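Write out a record, fold above all:
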Amino acid sequence: MPRFALPTAALILGAWTLPGLAVTPLTPRLADTTRTALLAALTQQGLPEVAQHSVVIALTAALGFEPKANTFTYEPPAPHLPKVDVRAEPAAAGCARVDARVALAAAHLRVRGTYCLVGAAEWRSGDQAVTGAGR
């Protein structure tokens, strides 16, 4: 293991915390309004809060960084989390159509909508809907 003099180590560690120099990994995400609306709709359908984040994770994984045909299955590591199957298909320019099925015990939900890129790997939907799986 390399040994550094104290001033060198402080300089290296300090570089990681300088304003404007921090590096944030780019990961797909939902725009705040879309995420808030999704969580509210999942709550209204009775999905527990801890399970809702599994839906967000699966949805953003299927959407990825650009609109393309993709599928993603979230296999729960614990019984209190839902299994989520998501299918994304390209739609209009910069957009993807999503159909997700959520299964947790007796709760079976479906999330559908068209999500469009509004920034670097940031997705927004104006027609997102959460329904019972049979609808």
Notes: The chain is about 30% helix and 35% strand. Residues 6-18 have pLDDT under 50 and may be disordered. The radius of gyration is 19 Å.
